[in-house]
Each structure stands twice: as structure tokens, then as C-alpha cells.
Design brief:
By secondary structure, the protein is an all-alpha fold. It contains one helix and no strands. Helices cover 42% and strands 0% of the residues.
Amino acid sequence: MGGGTYARKIPNAVAFGPRQERNLDRLGLPKGHGNCHCADEAELFENLKNAVKIYVFALKKLDKRIKEIHKLSIIQEDTK
């Protein structure tokens, strides 16, 4: 989708997801069912677990960067 969601409307926002290989045949759904953004969207449990790892990693990196920026802004304020 390439960020074609809410991220286009929110300044400084980024949409991202795990974009993993999917074999929905393993779920036993009829052909054409379980696809992304459909009423019966489905995902393999292994992919969900992997996605959580990706999101946690990303959030930790964002948290670290925010703390670095905050620290820099405090230093800059102190030098004024």
C-alpha cells in the first residue's frame, strides 16, 4: 500500500507494517478470502508473532531517538 492510509493526512506520520509472505491456504479459507483490508482479513499466527517483534523493535528505536532529541533540546535551552 505504500503508506496510502492515514499517514498521508497526518503531518510527520509514517504508516508501516511487517509485509510478510502469506500462505492463507494453511488457514483453510476459500479462495479469495482472508485478504488484507477485507471483511474477513486473516493472518497466520506465526506472522502475527513476528509482526509484534517488528513493532516492539521499531517502538524501542523511536523511544531512544525521542529521548536523544529531548536531551538535545534541553542542552540547547541551557546554552541560551
